[in-house]
Write a structure and sequence with these properties.
Elements (H helix, E strand, L loop, with lengths): L3 H8 L15 E3 L11 H4 L2 H15 L3 E4 L17 E5 L2 E4 L3 E4 L2 E4 L5 E3 L4 E9 L6 E10 L2 E10 L12 E2 L4 E4 L12 E7 L12 E3 L3 H7 L4 H4 L7
Parallel strand pairs: 1-2
Antiparallel strand pairs: 2-6, 3-4, 5-14, 6-13, 7-12, 8-9, 8-11, 9-10, 10-13
């Protein structure tokens, strides 16, 4: 597929998706690959301990947000069967297939209720409460048109209040605060953060789209989900 959308995104002007002043505030990269040996199962399986871990990482770095994860092959998804797939071979016998571990978005880790801002004009394509352990929790998908291209942005791990008065087709203007980071009980049982993803083709889905894929499927999904930093433009400030 052509990179014309990517080139268009590179040259466009966007509003910051979360409040951030690069001249005053810091970002720290968070690593969720197998290289991060600090994250043992005792932390990963306990959302409160995981939240404390993230909070301490931000405090130690004196950072407003932790950020990263695009095209990252993560081990943290072992915390939930949601990312494991099994194939029924015969009654009573299941075969584990390749798990989903390859991340297709950028995560921004910060304080609960952090405002989420529309980076450009759009409409509400769909929204849902994907309420399984380690799922998106509250999810909003916006549709956009930029020059001759249509595409979507997905916002995961939000608060229930974010969709309280929302309806499909609702206009969202560039710079509008339309959502916020959710508490664990509403965001899929994760430490507070935003999963931000660009999607070219929703492939008929509503209120949901894979944010994590099998490593063997990565090329197909990366083609449909360009680097979220094309809009965020925050990774350049990581310390």
């Amino acid at each position: 597929m052509s990179n014309d959308l990517v080139n268009t995104l590179k040259s466009a002007d966007f509003y910051s998706v979360v409040p951030f002043e690069a001249a005053k505030e810091r970002l720290v990269a968070l690593d969720f690959t197998e290289n991060n040996t600090e994250l043992n199962d005792d932390i990963l399986l306990d959302t409160n301990k995981f939240s404390i871990y993230i909070k301490n990482k931000l405090a130690d770095a004196r950072a407003k947000y932790g950020i990263g994860g695009y095209a990252e092959h993560r081990t943290i998804y072992r915390r939930s069967e949601l990312f494991n797939e099994t194939k029924l071979m015969m009654p009573g016998q299941n075969m584990h297939e390749e798990p989903r571990r390859f991340h297709l978005a950028i995560d921004i880790w910060g304080k609960v209720f952090t405002p989420v801002i529309a980076p450009l004009d759009g409409k509400v394509h769909s929204f849902a409460f994907n309420n399984r352990f380690s799922d998106y929790g509250v999810t909003i998908i916006l549709s956009h048109r930029l020059e001759n291209f249509s595409f979507f942005t997905l916002y995961g791990h939000l608060s229930l209040a974010s969709i309280r008065n929302m309806s499909e087709g609702m206009s969202i203007n560039k710079g509008d605060v339309f959502a916020e980071f959710g508490i664990p009980q509403e965001n899929g049982n994760w430490p507070p953060h935003l999963h931000f993803q660009i999607i070219k083709d929703m492939q008929g889905m509503k209120g949901d789209y894979p944010g994590v894929c099998k490593y063997s499927d990565r090329e197909t999904y990366l083609e449909n989900c360009p680097d979220a930093d094309l809009i965020l433009r925050m990774m350049q400030y990581v310390s």
